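Quick one: structure for this chain?
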Amino acid sequence: MKTLKIFSGIVLLILSTGSSVWSQTPQELFSKASALYNEKKYEESVIIYNDLLCSGYYSDDLYYNLGNALYRNNDAASAIWCYEKCLLLNASHEDAAANLSFVNKIVLGNAEVVPENFFIMAWNWLSALMSWQWWTYFFIITLAVFLTVSILFLISASNKSRRIFFLAAASLFIVVLIALAQSISGNYNIRHSKKAIVVNEAAQLRSSPDQNGTGIAMIQPGIKVRILENKTPWLRVITPDGTQGWVLEDRVVRLNAISPLLSE
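Got it. Here's what it folds into:
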């Protein structure tokens, strides 16, 4: 496992609207949890990290550190959830990606996975270049450059200059659209992710949304599924190997939840 991030600090993205009174600041609690982790007091570290999340504070590094503590506390499935959540917030978080790959290999082995098509792979590659917030900043910058080049195209008297500015504007327009799409997609997925992780115990995949449905397969803890349909209290999901079926929604934790530990 990679070294726990302590000195990178915590980026507070959302503040609770309540009037919670802290005996210590969130930064102090974050540092305290990190210190407990280094002292191998993993369970205590998990409690503090989780309390921070439940109080309305979160960041990619907070989820990353919680994932590390959960893994060391023998809860690999919840650790996988935290790494996935970290990457949902910041797809360019290299340490989380490395740890997720490491834990997946240990927990899941060489399970069969349906390969993604070229366009999804290309889109995910672009997403991993930076977080959705940085894609937003990049969109604003490229939009400003695009508008500047467009104005230069309109006021240019030389045909050669106009051709250059036109090609530059056309290229920038494509980049602007990609940046905007990445920003919107990243922000949307944080709130409305269709992905979920099986935690705590294996989940029975059934052919229909009831207990009388034929058992199709058992989904092991740590497996990521994509939600296709919701019929409370059942979810129709697809597993990484392409198997579809129904599972009780309390057997999985969606990636748009706050923490994988709230249901415990």
